[in-house]
Amino acid sequence: MNESVEKRSEPRTDLEKYHSVEFNIPGLDFLYQFKIWNMSSKGMCLLVREDSDVLKHLKVDNVLDMKCYATDSSLPPDNLKIQIKHITQDEQGRFKGHSLVGLLVLEKR
């Protein structure tokens, strides 16, 4: 029997209800929106093209206010305080040409 085994180190929680985030960078006139690619109990990961200007402005440990949109479009978005935990380039894997930006939810606003 081929049973699927959960390989993630943390269980999935309430964060799974989100499908995308939206935020701006202080001092810039742009609003950025990204799809959420995977989640853990406190965090999520965004997929950002390596040539995206936003990567020049994202740094590990930065804290941003992000609007998180639910997969259920009838629900209003949540405003969360989120810290950037890592920015990892995927040079050979499934997302070649992109960076994975790991986020940690600090608090709901």
Write the layout of secondary structure elements.
Elements: E1 18-24, E2 31-39, E3 43-49, E4 63-70, E5 78-90, E6 98-108
Antiparallel strand pairs: 1-2, 1-4, 2-3, 3-6, 4-5, 5-6
Provide keyphrases for this structure.
109 residues, mainly beta, Thrombin, subunit H, 6-stranded antiparallel barrel, 6 strands, globular
In short:
This protein is mostly beta strands and 109 residues long.
* Average pLDDT for all residues: 82
Strand content: over 45%
Order of the strands making up the biggest sheet? 1-2-3-6-5-4
Return the CATH topology. Answer: Thrombin, subunit H
Task: Describe this protein's structure.
It is globular, with a radius of gyration of 15 Å. It is built from no helices and 6 strands. With 109 residues, the chain is an all-beta fold.
